[in-house]
Design brief:
Blueprint (H helix, E strand, L loop, with lengths): L1 H25 L8 H47 L4 H31 L2
Amino acid sequence: MKALKRLFAIALMLGVLFALSVPAFAAAEAGAESAAVEAAAEAGVTGSKATASAILIGVAALSGALAMGLAISKSAESIARQPEAAGSIRTAMMLGLVFIETVVIYALIVAILIIFVL
């Protein structure tokens, strides 16, 4: 479990670093007057945006799927141990799944913003 948390933290940091590096690649070179140089720079920016967005949404989807799997397995174990509390356990599980899915949707929105706004 610790290794999974550490892996998630490293992947999250890499995603943030990629997302933050996009403006650095977007800066035009000083004194570059050639249209070919500007076109090449724009292609590099587009590629960086695509890479950052792909990594961001991939990490978010992976972590969301792992979190949902853990939540469902733990709630199934809890219901098996205490069947009389199944209603409250199911309610808490569904609320947790909604929050997990909300984080994944926020990551999707951020990825779309990286592509189209930055």
